[in-house]
Design goal:
By secondary structure, this protein is α+β, with helices and mostly antiparallel strands. Helix content is about 45%, strand content about 15%. It has one domain. The chain is elongated.
Length: about 110
């Protein structure tokens, strides 16, 4: 990955599959030293290198976390089930529209 192909002030992670199905990863950056201070650039390069090491060492963990997230999403969809629409009965609507729709209760019997 050539620096001039990367937009200014950009860090890039490119993942692609080879003809044999292997995952190929490329990391790159292009910082304009006139616009970004040296300490910030060093910090961002450390972050990019940390991400690269995490990918190298923990690809299986990322795959497991992605599989768990997919399973959780499926469970949420199963629990939500089909949407239920409530359509009130005409008798209920009439009762709610009356002026005396307050139900009295005995305050002494509240626990």
């Amino acid at each position: 990955m050539r620096e001039e192909d990367i937009p200014k002030n950009t860090m890039l992670i490119k993942m692609s599959l080879t003809d044999t199905g292997d995952l190929r990863m490329a990391f790159g950056h292009n910082f304009n030293v006139d616009e970004v201070d040296e300490d910030s650039i060093q910090y961002l390069l450390d972050v990019l290198n940390g991400i690269r090491i995490s990918f190298d060492a923990g690809m299986e963990q990322f795959a497991q976390q992605g599989a768990m997230a997919r399973m959780i999403q499926g469970l949420i969809e199963d629990l939500d089930g089909p949407e239920i629409e409530f359509e009130p009965d005409e008798e209920l609507l009439e009762a709610l529209n009356k002026d005396n729709n307050i139900i009295p209760f005995d305050k002494k019997r509240l626990n």
